[in-house]
Design the sequence.
């Protein structure tokens, strides 16, 4: 269903439209909530408050943004307030200044020293091709899931929206209220760590 | 095309991969990047691994919300509808 029909259906108190929206957005909403609140349990409470806010606001929703952006804005406001109440320092720097703490995509010791006479910054231990059949096995997917779970919340939210959910960069920036540049920094760090986890796993002896 | 391995080190290249894949590199840097991965097997492989990583991540199923949470939400909906 497109936005117009979903909004009309919700206004008509159509439960199946509500279920469709929940199924579409719950996983992403939870990921984003977890940027701001300390636990999954609190994130689920934020999720509930969000949907109640959506239902209470839908009759007045003017459609100046997409329905999706509006829902995520409601979530972000609730999650921020809740995070403050839980005594969590807001991760503004994670979303607004992700560059503040430098992070290398690949460990520096994989490269030759910057003062190397012939090949400064060149691979000392270059990546080797991955065995296709192990890459496609279920274990590799589990490695990716584990690596995503271990990411800092802002990186985890960005990679989940972009690469798991398949959202565009615009949609992701709108939902998170983050600039294109910062979104790319977060995505870069997230993808780099997941690649590293896969490399570690795939280069182990079977 | 004269830009090459000498101008962009492998260590620098790995930090540009996401900008490259997102088509966010300025034209000149993009040309150096492409020139580099054509000549450097390590970086070529690195970019392939990033693509494989993205593809594999895309094959995951999104996390599920607990069915208990979903039931609570449906109850909230019915409550709203009744109110």
Sequence:
């Amino acid at each position: 269903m497109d936005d117009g029909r979903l909004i009309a259906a919700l206004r008509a108190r159509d439960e199946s439209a509500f279920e469709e929206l929940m199924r579409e957005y719950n996983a992403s909403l939870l990921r984003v909530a977890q940027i701001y609140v300390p636990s999954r349990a609190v994130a689920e409470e934020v999720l509930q408050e969000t949907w109640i806010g959506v239902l209470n606001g839908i009759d007045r929703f003017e459609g100046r943004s997409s329905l999706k952006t509006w829902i995520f804005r409601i979530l972000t406001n609730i999650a921020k307030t809740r995070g403050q109440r839980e005594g969590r320092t807001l991760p503004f720097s994670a979303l607004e200044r992700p560059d503040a703490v430098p992070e290398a995509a690949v460990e520096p010791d994989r490269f030759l020293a910057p003062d190397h006479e012939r090949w400064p910054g060149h691979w000392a231990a270059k990546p080797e091709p991955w065995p296709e059949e192990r890459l496609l096995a279920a274990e590799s997917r589990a490695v990716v899931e584990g690596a995503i779970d271990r990411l800092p919340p802002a990186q985890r939210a960005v990679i989940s929206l972009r690469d798991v959910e398949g959202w565009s960069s615009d949609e992701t920036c709108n939902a998170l209220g983050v600039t294109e540049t910062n979104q790319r920094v977060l995505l870069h760090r997230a993808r780099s760590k997941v690649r590293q986890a896969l490399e570690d796993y795939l280069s182990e002896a079977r | 095309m004269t830009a090459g391995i000498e101008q962009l080190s492998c260590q620098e290249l790995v930090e540009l991969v996401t900008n490259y894949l997102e088509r966010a590199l300025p034209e000149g840097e993009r040309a150096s990047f492409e020139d580099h991965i054509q000549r450097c097997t390590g970086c070529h492989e690195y970019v392939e691994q990033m693509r494989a990583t993205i593809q594999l991540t895309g094959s995951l199923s999104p996390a599920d919300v607990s069915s208990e949470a979903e039931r609570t939400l449906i109850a909230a909906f019915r409550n709203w509808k009744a109110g």
Remarks:
- Chain A has ten helices and no strands.
